[in-house]
Design the sequence.
C-alpha cells in the first residue's frame, strides 16, 4: 500500500493557516505584553509547528520518508553555510554600493539582551523547519525529483509568510518570494538524504544563520523594493547554484519507487546471461569495453567482467529502441565520461 504524502502536506498547510488565523489576535496581544520586538521573533511562526504536529499525530509512523543516505556532517552542510555567508556578503556589498539607508542595529536598539535574541531566533527557526524541511520537503521527495520538491517547498515556504503581503508593497513581496525559494533550494542541498532529525537540525541552524545575517547586517531592512531586490539578487545567485547541484544529484537521491529501473543492476560477476544471444553483440561489446575503460569508483557493478556486461547489453540491443536504452543505462550505472 502506498504511504500517504500529498494529503499530510495539505493537512499541514490547512492546520498551519487555521492556527495562524485563530491565534493571531491572541499572539499579537501576547507579543505586546511581553514587549517582544517583532523583528526579533514573530510568535505566529509557531503556527507552522502546530500544523506539523497535527500531521504527525494523524499519520504518526505511516508517513513515507526518503531513505537516509548521508550523515549530518557532510559537504552539503558546508555548502549551505558557505552559500548563505556568500549571500550575506553580496547583499552587504550591494547595500554599500547603493549607499542604502539600512544599517546594523546599535546595541541600544536591539530591544532585548543578545542571549535572548539568539535563543528566540533559534527556537523560531526550528519551529518553522519542523514543518517545511521536516515534513513538506521529504514527503514531496517521494513524489518528485529533489529539485522539483525543493522548488515547490520554497514556493509554499514563501507563501507561508503571507503576513508580509500586508506589510510591504506587492513588488517587495514578490521579491521576497524569490529569496525564499532560493533559500529553500540551498536548504534542500544541505538536508537531502539525511534523517528526519538531522534535516530539522541542519535546516534550523542554517535558517537561524540567514535570520541573523539580515538582522545584524541590516536590522531587517526597511521593507522597500530596493532592500528586497538586494536580497533577491544575493540569495538568488546562490540559489541558482543550489538548483544545479540538486539537478545533478537527482538520480542518486531519487525515492526507491521513482528510480528508473536499469537492466544492469543485479548482475552477478559471472553474468548469468544467455550466451546464444549474438544479435547486436557489436554494440554490447563496444559499451562493455567503455565500461572497462571508464569505470565508476562509486558503483559496485563496475566489478563485472566486460564480457558479462557485453552479453547483457547485447540482449538489450536486439531492437533499436533498446539499444538507446542500453547506452543510457551504461552511462548512468558506470559513470562513463563520454557519450557512446
Sequence:
Amino acid at each position: 500500500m502506498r504511504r500517504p504524502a500529498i494529503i499530510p502536506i495539505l493537512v499541514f498547510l490547512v492546520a498551519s493557516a487555521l492556527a495562524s488565523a485563530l491565534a493571531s489576535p491572541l499572539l499579537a496581544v501576547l507579543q505586546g505584553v511581553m514587549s517582544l520586538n517583532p523583528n526579533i521573533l514573530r510568535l505566529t511562526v509557531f503556527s507552522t509547528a502546530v500544523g506539523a504536529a497535527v500531521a504527525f499525530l494523524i499519520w504518526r509512523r505511516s508517513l513515507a520518508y526518503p531513505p537516509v543516505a548521508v550523515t549530518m556532517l557532510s559537504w552539503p552542510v558546508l555548502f549551505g553555510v558557505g552559500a548563505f555567508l556568500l549571500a550575506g556578503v553580496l547583499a552587504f556589498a550591494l547595500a554599500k554600493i547603493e549607499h542604502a539607508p539600512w544599517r546594523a542595529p546599535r546595541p541600544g536598539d536591539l530591544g532585548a539582551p543578545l542571549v535572548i535574541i539568539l535563543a528566540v531566533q533559534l527556537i523560531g527557526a526550528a519551529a518553522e523547519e519542523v514543518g517545511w524541511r521536516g515534513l513538506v520537503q521529504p514527503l514531496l521527495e517521494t513524489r518528485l525529483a529533489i529539485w522539483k520538491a525543493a522548488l515547490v517547498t520554497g514556493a509554499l515556504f514563501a507563501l507561508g509568510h503571507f503576513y508580509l503581503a500586508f506589510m510591504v508593497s506587492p513588488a517587495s513581496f514578490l521579491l521576497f518570494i524569490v529569496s525564499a525559494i532560493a533559500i529553500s533550494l540551498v536548504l534542500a542541498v544541505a538536508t537531502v538524504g539525511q534523517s528526519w532529525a538531522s534535516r530539522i537540525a541542519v535546516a534550523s541552524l542554517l535558517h537561524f544563520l540567514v535570520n541573523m545575517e539580515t538582522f545584524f547586517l541590516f536590522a531587517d531592512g526597511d521593507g522597500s523594493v530596493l532592500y528586497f531586490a538586494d536580497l533577491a539578487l544575493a540569495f538568488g545567485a546562490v540559489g541558482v547554484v543550489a538548483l544545479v547541484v540538486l539537478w545533478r544529484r537527482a538520480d542518486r537521491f531519487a525515492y526507491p519507487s521513482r528510480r528508473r529501473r536499469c537492466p544492469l543492476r543485479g548482475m552477478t560477476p559471472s553474468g548469468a546471461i544467455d550466451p546464444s544471444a549474438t544479435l547486436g553483440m557489436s554494440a554490447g561489446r563496444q559499451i562493455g569495453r567503455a565500461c572497462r575503460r571508464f569505470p565508476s569508483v562509486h558503483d559496485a557493478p563496475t566489478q563485472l567482467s566486460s564480457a558479462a556486461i557485453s552479453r547483457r547489453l547485447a540482449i538489450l540491443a536486439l531492437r533499436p529502441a533498446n539499444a538507446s536504452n542500453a547506452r543510457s543505462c551504461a552511462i548512468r550505472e558506470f559513470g562513463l565520461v563520454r557519450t557512446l
Observations:
- Confidence is low (pLDDT under 50) at residues 260-304, 315-327, 330-340.
- The radius of gyration is 25 Å.
- The chain has two domains: 68-258, 281-334.
- Residues 281-334 form one domain.
